[in-house]
Amino acid sequence: MSEKKEEKQLSLFSNDKHEDLVAIFGAALVMILVLIL
Amino acid sequence: MNESTASKWIKVLPGLLFMFVIALLAMGTKTLGGEWAGLEGWIKTNSKFLGDVLKINHVIIVIIIGMVIRNTIGIPSWAQAGVKTSRIFIKMGVILLGSLYSLAELATLGSTSILLIATFMFSTIIFTMWLGKKYNMDPGSAACLAAGAGVCGVSAIVAVAPAVKARGEDIAYSIATILSFGIVCLFTFPILGHLMGLTPEQFGMWAGTGILNSGQVLAAALAFDPGTADVPSISLKVGEIYNLTRVVFLPLVVLLITILYARMSDDKTVETAASAGKTFFSKFPLFVLGFIATVTLTSFGAFGPTHPVSPDLKAFRDIYSWFFSIGLTGLGLQISFAEMRKAGGTPLVIGSVAGFLKAALSLVVVLWLF
C-alpha cells in the first residue's frame, strides 16, 4: 500500500474543512457540558 | 455514522490515551484536583537552571518527550491513528481560548496584528520568490518555500502546492526546511525573550509574527509564559491573535503566490479570475469562525463575568491547557529527524535566510513600536 493511501486510511478527517467543523462541534460540546455540570 | 467511520473513531482512542498520559506526566494532576506537580514541578524543585533560567515547563517537556519517542522507538502502531488527530485538540483549544477576549480587545489587537502580519508576510513571500529566482530554483519549489516562510508553515505549503504544480520532492524539501527552522525558533525564542527581558505582550507579538508554524507559535508563547486559570498567559493571548491573523490571510496568500508563480514560470494556465474566488473560499479556515463566536459569547456574558472570572470561564482555561498539551504532544510525536534531513541545498539556505530575516526584523519592529 502506498504511503499516501495508508495516511488517508489512518486519517479521521477527509480534509481541513471537515477537521475544522469537528473542532467547532467538539468545542461547543465542551462549553455546553461545562455550563450544564 | 457508517461502520467504517465508527471504526476509525474507535481506532484513534489508544493514541489519544497515549498523548493524554504523556501530557499528564508533564503537567501533573493539580488542574485535575490532585496534588502531584508532574515533571514540570519536579524540574522546578530540582534544577534552578532548567526551571528558573531556561524556564522549562510542561509545554517544552511534552514536545521533547514526543520527539524522543518518535526518533528512538517510534510511535507504536496502535497509537498512530490517534496521534494524527492531535491538530484537532489545538483547534478546539484555540476556539476555547476565545473566552479570554472581549470584542473590543479583539478589535484593538486585530488592527495592530493585521498591519504587522501583512507587512511581514507579503514581504517575506516576495523576497523568498525573488531569492529563489536569483538562485535558479524551480518556480514551484520557490513558491512552496515562500508560502511556508511567509504564512503558516506546513498548511500553507500544502495549500499552495497544487496551484503551483509543485513536485513531491519540492513539497518535502519545503516542509523539512520550514519545520527544521521552526524547531530552532521554538526552543530559542522563549530563552532569547527572557534574556532580552521582553514583556509578555512583546513576546506574543514577536512569536506570532516571527515563528512560521501555528503549533510552534502556541508552544513558544506558552513556554515563555504558561499562565494559570487565574492569571492566563498574556503572551499566548497576544501571540494567538497574530497567529490567527496569519491563518486568515492564507487564502489571499495562495492567490498571490499563484500569480507570482505564473509570472516566474510563464505558465498562463494556473489561475484565472474565475477560479481565484473559488480558491479564496476553499482555503478559508473555518475554525477561526468558532473562535470569533466564543469571543462574541464571552463579550455578551454568556459564560458569566470576566472580572472576577466566573467558574465556567476558569474551567474553560483548564480545559484548553489540557487540549494544548495533548495537541503539542502530538506535534512532538510528529517531528522526525529523518524527515528533516530531507532539507538541504539551496531551499534550506533560502528558507533559513528568509526565516531568520523575518524573525530578526519583527523583533526590531516590536521593540521599536511597542
Automatic annotation (TrEMBL), chain A:
The UniProt keyword set, sorted, is:
Membrane, Transmembrane, Transmembrane helix
Q: Which residues cross the membrane?
A: 21-36
Name listed for the protein in its UniProt record: Uncharacterized protein
Automatic annotation (TrEMBL), chain B:
Segments passing through the bilayer: 12-29, 110-131, 143-165, 171-192, 204-224, 244-263, 284-304, 319-337, 349-369
Q: How does it sit in the membrane?
A: Multi-pass membrane protein
Record's GO cellular component terms: plasma membrane
Q: Which UniProt keywords apply?
A: Cell membrane, Membrane, Transmembrane, Transmembrane helix
User: Domain of life here?
Assistant: Bacteria
**Pfam hit, one:** Cons_hypoth698
Q: Where in the cell is it found?
A: Cell membrane
Where it mainly occurs, coarsely classed, is membrane
Q: Which family does it belong to?
A: Belongs to the UPF0324 family.
Specify the protein name.
Answer: Putative membrane protein
